[in-house]
Design goal:
The chain has helices at about 40-45, 95-100, 160-180, 195-205, 220-225, 240-245, 265-270; strands at about 1-10, 15-20, 30-35, 60, 65-70, 85, 120-125, 125-130, 140-145, 150, 185-190, 210-215, 230-235, 255-260, 280, 310. The protein is an alpha/beta fold and about 325 residues long.
Length: about 325
């Protein structure tokens, strides 16, 4: 089947809308008509050549997609044509050691993408294209493994549902799962884009008593306040670390989240932590991994790691 898709051939070059061939679903695969897709900074990292992913073949970007199932392979059991679904970038096999230990987000089974020896899901003039993260949502249709889709209520608007597939899940998950946030603790969020705003909401849901949102754009800070931030700081106008310290009476915060993928902000987040037990999750799993210099001596924290030790949300 021929579809239109946004194709990137080389870093730093324009993403072009081009005709692409998409295969029919095999086995446990699902063909989804794309209704909406988010535009994530992780896609921009690929375009700007700052990603860990190779561009050894043209790529169809996008991984925050939602749509309607059009057809399914013979072995699919979880969805059927007409179902509304969200693409899940953390596809899983269900049988590897990580999946069986309760961590399907860390799956090493490798079943959600076709093997290099198999005919490609996407191609152009006989040449394989790579769907980003085995999704490729910048296209009229997505061909996905059934373990890479989540069925949703058909009443949920698909343009909202698409954002849950990455930005909302990453931010809320960082606050509620990765950080170890406890009710009554304090939080600083560096960067109030889609992920940062989701962290703010996750911290509110988790019962944080103080949520400090930091960004350089006032409209983002206004949105952060609306969704749960108790304090906002424009870091273009004042030193963010000093501001966080002032707002916490000099103590620093229990949890600092860096939601941009910027080394300067990572250091600022670490320096805003209270010692000895602060945490600084890095929600962006697809951004370049920065080299972080710890600002202080290796004082132990509650979980036995040095203060400011970063843990990447998966």
């Amino acid at each position: 089947m021929k579809i239109s898709a946004a194709v990137l051939r080389r870093a730093h070059e324009p993403v072009m809308i081009e005709p692409v061939e998409i295969d029919t679903p095999w086995g446990r695969e699902v063909l989804v008509r794309t209704a909406a897709t988010g535009v994530c900074h992780s896609d921009l990292h690929v375009v700007e050549g700052q990603s860990r992913f190779s561009l050894d073949r043209p790529i169809v970007l996008g991984h925050e997609g939602a749509g309607v199932v059009e057809s399914v392979g013979a072995d699919v059991t979880t969805v059927r044509p007409g179902d509304h679904v969200v693409a899940c970038l953390s596809g899983f096999c269900g049988s590897c050691a990580q999946c069986l230990s309760g961590h399907p987000n860390l799956c090493v089974g490798g079943i959600v993408a076709r093997s290099d020896s198999a005919p490609p899901r996407l191609s152009q003039n006989g040449r394989a294209l790579w769907p980003f993260l085995a999704i490729g949502s910048y296209a009229e249709r997505m061909l996905l493994h059934e373990n890479s889709v989540v069925k949703i209520d058909p009443d949920l608007p698909l343009d909202r549902a698409a954002l849950v597939g990455c930005g909302v899940l990453t931010g809320v998950g960082a606050a509620l799962r990765s950080s170890g946030l406890e009710a009554g603790q304090t939080v600083a969020v560096f960067g109030c884009g889609g992920v940062g705003l989701s962290i703010v909401q996750g911290a509110r849901i988790g019962g944080a008593r103080q949520i400090i949102a930091l960004d350089i754009f006032d409209p983002k800070l206004e949105t952060a306040r609306r969704v749960g931030a108790t304090h906002v700081v424009n870091s273009a106008n004042e030193d963010p670390v000093k501001a966080v310290r002032a707002l916490t009476g000099g103590a620093g915060v229990d949890h600092a989240f860096e939601a941009v993928g910027n080394t300067t902000l990572v250091r600022q987040a670490i320096e805003s932590l209270g010692i000895p037990h602060g945490r600084e999750p890095l929600p962006h799993r697809h951004s370049p991994v920065p080299r972080v210099l710890s600002p202080g001596p290796p004082v132990a924290r509650r979980d036995g790691h040095p203060p400011g030790a970063a843990r990447r949300h998966q």
